[in-house]
Amino acid sequence: MIPLTADIVMRITGASREDALRFLPFLQGTCKAYSITNPNRIVGFLSQIGVESAGLSQIEENLNYSVAGLLRTFGRHRISAEDAHAYGRRRGQAADQKELAIILYGGEFGRKNLGNTGVSDGWLYRGRGLKQLTGRWNYAACGKAIGEDLIARPDRLLLPVNAALSAGWFWASKGLNAVADKGDVAEMTRIVNGGSNGLDRRLALWEQGQGVFA
């Protein structure tokens, strides 16, 4: 396994030195545990979680969407224009993040895609960890894998060790080592993010990471 350093983590995730040092031992353990051990796998993993976590600085989902942001980002099957205006951020009104999480990760979408069945599941199991793990199904499966009851204690994903391990668990559970071996950044992004959000940044960090191991 290639040993990680704070400088490597900073360059591939875009993290500050402080955040790189905070997560370094946990990223080392995660990479070892999930066979993220060659250059392509390390660069793929770190670049993807770097974007997902805003350079390792954000391990809890920020749902402070503006009305326009909600309407632009989510389809009407996820949130209606009426609800976007009622709960989104606008002049004189802060975003109601709890209500937004319940709407965006609840209903038919939440049941089918995330296993969210309780009224507040969208909020309880919102994005956390370096991957921004989301949904009851993912919390349950990840918790079983890392030895935590994340259904009863979802905030345990905010511990640096669990924030890193949950990202590694997701990576391995989706077969992303094989995708990274092929160097397919677009496919990695589709699996991690569900689309092409932040693809330019992910590509830039991938290229930067390749230079680290050249």
Secondary structure topology:
Layout: H1 6-13, H2 17-33, H3 39-52, H4 67-73, H5 81-87, H6 97-104, H7 107-114, H8 121-124, H9 136-146, H10 160-173, H11 176-182, H12 185-193, H13 199-212
Give a written overview of the molecule:
By secondary structure, this protein is mainly α. Helices cover 60% and strands 0% of the residues. The protein has 13 helices and no strands. The protein has helices spanning 6-13, 17-33, 39-52, 67-73, 81-87, 97-104, 107-114, 121-124, 136-146, 160-173, 176-182, 185-193, 199-212. The longest helix has 17 residues, at 17-33. It is globular, with a radius of gyration of 17 Å. The model has no long low-confidence stretch (mean pLDDT 96).
Essential attributes:
globular; 214 residues; 13 helices; mainly alpha
Indicate the low-confidence ranges by residue numbers: none
Structural class category:
mainly alpha
Into which percent range does the helicity of residues fall?
A: 55-70%
Q: How large is the radius of gyration?
A: 17 Å
Query: Number of helical runs?
Result: 13
Order of helices and strands: HHHHHHHHHHHHH
Would you report the number of β strands? 0
Mean pLDDT value: 96
Largest sheet: none
